[in-house]
Structure formats: C-alpha cells, structure tokens
Amino acid sequence: MTKHKVLVVSVCPQSLPFFAVKFGLDITEAALKLCSFLKSLGVQYVFDTTLAAGFSILETQKEFIQRYRGRHHDSHALPMFTSSCPGEIFYLMEQKKVSVEKLDSVPLDHVLGEAGDVALVRHEGRGSEGFLEHVFKHAAKELFGLDVHEITYKTLRNRDFQEVTLERDGETLLQFAAVYGFRNIQTLVHRMRKGRVPYQLVEVLSCPGGCLSGRGQAESEAGGRADKTLVQQMEETYSSLPVCLPEVNPTLHTLYQDWLQGQDSPQAGTLLHTQYTSQSQMYTQPPHMQW
After folding, report:
1. In sequence order, what are the residues at sequence separation of 6 or more whose Cβ sits closer than 8 angstroms to the Cβ of residue 209?
2. Residues with Cβ within 8 Å of residue 159, at least 6 apart in sequence
3. Distance separating alpha carbons of residues 27 and 16, to the nearest angstrom
4. Contact, 56 vs 271, CB < 8 A?
5. What's the pLDDT score for residue 166?
6. CB pairs under 8 A, 24+ apart, for 231-237?
7. What predicted TM-score, i.e. pTM, was given to this entire model?
8. How far apart are CA 250 and CA 265, in angstroms?
9. How far apart are CA 131 and CA 124, in angstroms?
10. Is 57 helix (H, G, I), strand (E, B) or coil?
11. How far is residue 213 CA from its own chain's centroid?
12. Can you spell out the DSSP letters for 166-188?
C-alpha cells in the first residue's frame, strides 16, 4: 500500500452475529474488536454498510413504484429482483491466528466524519437487509393507501421459497416472493420461462437461509453443513439490534441533500443505480447450474 492509496473496509451487520456468538461477545463489542483487527492489518477506515443499504432500500422502493405504474407499457418492468450479500473475513482471522481477547475495542468510522461512536442498527425484516418487507410496506401505502404493520410469510416449496400477499376485499393487490438458494432460484427461472410467475418483486439470495446462514460463517466445524443451533443464536443476536427505518435516518437525508442534490435528482439516479446490458454467453456454465 502506498501513501497515495487509502484502504477502506465496509462491514455488514449480518456478518457480526457470527463473531458475537463465536467469541461470547455482545454484537456491539464484536463490531469494535473486528474493527480493531482490520485496522491492525493496515485498514484506515472501517464503515458499517447499514447506511449504504438504507440508500439501496429507498432507491428500490422508488424504482418499484415506477415499474409497477409503468407495467402496462413495459412488459419487462416486472417482476423486479432485489438482492444483497455480505462478505466474510473469518477465514482471514483464522489464518492470522488472532486472539480476540487481545484485540482492543476500536469504534467504527463515521461516513460524515463526526465524533462519537457509531450506533449499530438494523433494518426491518429477516436477517438479509429486509428489502422485501421495506418495499412491500412502502408499496402498500403508496399504491393502495394501506398501512401494513406485520408481514406474514407463506411457505411454498420449503422455508427458502416463501411468498407474501397483500389482499383487499378478496382481491390480490401485491404478491412478492423470497427465494433463497440456487435450487429454488433455478425453479423460479424455469417458472418464469413458462410464464407462471405471479410476483411483482422477488428477493433473491444465493445462500439457503439467507445472509446469516451464508457459507463460511454458519457452517459446523465437522462437515460443512449449516449449524442450526448456531444459526438460531445468530438470528437472536441480530434481532437484538434496534431497528432504524431508512426513511427517518437523518444521515441519509443529509447525504441526499448535500451530496446528491436531492432524492430525485439526476445525480441520485446516476450514482445510486447500475445499468446492465446483455452479454453474449461466451462462458461455460457450471455443471451444477442448469438454467
């Protein structure tokens, strides 16, 4: 690393429960010690990704409303897909043979540089940033004037293929799905090809069980399978974080106004959205993924 480069690491809240449970810490202390470890490697700034996820949730809500209202003019507007996946650094700690007891507690850095500790929070929903729940509640209010306080998931093929429905007077207004794991994603793709997908939005994650069950952090030491007891402890630890809605996050509003010149500005559309283009399939598809 040269003096002209700054090494920055972002830590998602879904990766913290593993460290907390593994080393018998509360989730805040786990974040502080993880920050200390990263800075001992030469990292200069460590940020919590919850703020960035807040941006993504707000932009996803807005984009879904636009897509839903334009669905009759654009056959490709729906279904809309959302996804987010964390990274893990536990392997690195194992290789370095780090003793957690010897790590100091170092606070995470503030995006705006203000003083004081960063308060760890989470978004609504299960342990995967809650895109489905945030968009569902927002769309119910924005499109139909309905306030949704609790969301009920209906299990279909298995607990990693579930749907959520908004109904009024017997009419289905919205139908979302949460689809986790490649097998369930493949099933969804096959249904889409046959035109049998009723969903307006699908939350997709490659890991069965979602982010908390992500490969590398929830596996048992014996055989590579998810440790159900560990996952349950991680879910409880993650749920202990207070919920902060991105709609009322003052830092997000400050960044929208000062950095992006408003939530609906051209800058927000350019900097917070990614454009995708179709590519010719010149690569070999992995044998276990038959799309």
Report:
1. 159, 160, 180, 181, 218, 226, 231
2. 209
3. 6
4. no
5. 95
6. 233/17, 233/21, 234/17, 234/18, 234/20, 234/21, 234/127, 235/17, 235/127, 237/16, 237/17, 237/20, 237/21, 237/27
7. 0.81
8. 18
9. 8
10. helix
11. 13
12. EEETTEEEEEEEEEESHHHHHHH
What does the block give as tokens for 142?
């924005």
Work out the burial of residue 77: count CB atoms within 10 Å of its CB; fewer than 13 is exposed, 13-18 middle, 19 or more buried: middle
Mean pLDDT by 10 residues, the chain (291 residues): 77 85 89 90 88 90 94 88 60 54 75 63 78 93 94 87 92 92 86 86 84 63 68 87 89 90 89 73 53 47
Q: How many residues does the chain have?
A: 291
Token digits of residue 143: 């499109």
Ranges assigned E (strand) in the chain: 8-11, 45-48, 80-82, 154-155, 161-168, 171-180, 201-205
| Eight-class DSSP state of 261 | S
